[in-house]
Amino acid sequence: MGTMVHGINVDQLVGTINAIKENPDLARFQFRAVTEWVDGGHSRTKIQGFYGAGAEDASRNSPFVLEGDEPPVLLGSNAGPNAVETVLSALASCLTVGIVYNAAARDIKVESLSFSMQGDIDLHGFLGLSDRVRPGYQNIRLSCRVKSDAPREKLEELWAYVQRTSPVLDIVRNTVPVSLTIENT
Question: Which CATH architecture has domain 82-175?
């Protein structure tokens, strides 16, 4: 079965790393999502298949369904979090994986882990009332609370490493090329 730490099979993790070292093409993944408008600000996203480790993945029998909406103050009906709230969730989820997986690989025991996040947005950009105010977050503040018996120095090394390797933190911090098209059906 392998060595299990924090619910992670460490032997499998090391095996995956070694397989990618031997065959770098295995590292190429493509994730996909399909979103449809429901009503008002409400949308529904389905996530199921993806390409990774050299093949199309078929492990998900049914899609994950994520509801998105706006709060009433932004003309929605609270059918789900809004998109910028979902970004905060994605960021914390990614950092969670980074900490837990890397702690397991480093034999650091994590007893508990939580994040608190705040993101500030000025609606002047989103509403098109100002060209000088960006429509997205002006800043995001994230606080990580980890309970572990590891020395503070080891936790700080882990935290620095996770920040360097987190895909979602990279997406939020750096420009990503995005190709946009519109089709009239």
Answer: 2-Layer Sandwich (3.30)
